[in-house]
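hiii, so i know i said id send this last week but things got crazy w the move. better late than never?? heres the sequnce for the chain we talked about at the cafe, plus the structure i predicted for it. fair warning i was half asleep when i ran it
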Amino acid sequence: MVHVVTYLVVGVVASIVLDYASLFSRPVISDYMVEFGSVSLFVGPLIQVLRGLIIAAVLLPFRGVFAQRRGWLWLWLLLVGIGILSTSAAAPSSLEGIVYTQLPLWYHAIGLPEMLVQTLAFSVLVALYERHPEGLLAVLPPVFERLVRALVSASLAFVGYAVISVAFALLAGASIDAEQSLSVQVQGLFVGPFLINFVLAFLAAGGLTLTRRILVGLGSYVLSTAAILTYQVIVLGSPDIAYAAIAPLLPAIAVWLLVPKRDAAKTNQPEAKETRHTL
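okay and structure toks below
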């Protein structure tokens, strides 16, 4: 999860700051990288889950080292040394890549800040987690835990929208245009659902019973559907009822599954104690 979150956050910021859309369309670079905004861009976040599992499995035997005072530094140097500079393949920003590819030197350099920041953030968070086995959020005020849970839930729900949107485009036989797909007008469609899922996840972060968790999922679906239809009518000019009805399904399921469980007996326990005390 740490890898997925840091990868997405740093990647989004870098894509905006460095203007990946125009960067990837330049000569030589366009032969090496897929078009920015293609299907791969939307599938990428899902691949990071698999990458995160692989990284976790590889680092698991060394977790004791990361809990040390400078554990974050050793982990970061390990990732930079083996994962960036000395990769076995001729990857961008690596020594092999500089020698054996036709990529210009400026391209090797321009990607370094993103990779260094992402691996640094990953290393620091992993080290903090290892130094607090009870959970990093446990040492923070409760509101931070709610905010983090809500952000993770809303972000994963957003990935669900990306997957369904790509599926709709492929089934319709429509081409995915990078500039149009990433335009403010198109991406604005998901702002409302993202905020809705964030608020619902924040309110439910303390844990709910099964019935209330289902209600949260239904609320996410209904409110997101309404938000999408409203945006389509006001901004895009015409509603797409099929998309508005199907798109929120996967995100709503994600929000429902990520709401912490709370035992109904524990929920009613304070009320029972109060009743006995009154009697």
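btw The chain has two domains: 2-139, 142-265. thought thatd interest u
miss u guys!!
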